[in-house]
Amino acid sequence: MTAKLEIEYKTLLNHNHASQLLSTGLFRFYSKQINTYLDNTDSFFQSKRMVLRIRTKADSYLFTAKIEASDGLREIEFPLENNAFNNLKIIDFVTNYTDNVSMIEIGTTLTYRYILDDEFGQWCLDFNVFKFSSDVELEYELFEGITNKKDHFLERLESWGIPYQPCPSKFIRMLNDRK
Fold this sequence. Notes:
By secondary structure, this protein is α+β, with helices and mostly antiparallel strands. It has 5 helices and 9 strands, in the order ββαβαβββαβββαα. Strands 1-6-5-4-3-7-8-9-2 form a 9-stranded antiparallel β-sheet. The protein is globular and about 50 Å long. The mean pLDDT is 94.
C-alpha cells in the first residue's frame, strides 16, 4: 500500500485544442483505462468526500482512495488481482472507516490517456467517455515533493494557446453525467 499527496491542476479542452496538442507530437499514448467508482450501499464515502475507484489497464488493477486534504488530495493505492468489489484488500480498507462493507459500483469512465513529462510533473491529455457524454481534459500532476507550480501550468497553457477552464474531477463529471 502506498500513500502520497496528489497536487494537480486541470482544464477542459475543446476538441480543436486537443487535436492541436496531439499534433505537436509532444504527447505519447500511454494507456486505455477504465475507472470503476465504488461506494458502500449507504454512500458513506461520498458523504465523507472520499472517492474510491478501481483502475483497470490491460490486465492490471489498482485500487485508489482519494481523500480531500487542505494541501491537495491524499491518495492511498494498492494493486489488486482482479476488479471484484468484494476483494479482501478493499474490504480491509473499508473497515477502517465503516462497518458497512457492502460495496457497489456507482459509475465508470473510459479514458484514453496521452502523457508528457516535464521538469515539475506529468501532463495527461485525457479523452474521457462517460455513459451519456464525453470530454477532453488536460491535467498536470506535480511530481512528489513539488507543491506549487500553478503559474507554470498557466504559462504552458498560454504558450499552447489553450484557455484555462477549471473543471471538477472525472468522478464529479461522471456523477453529473448520470443526471
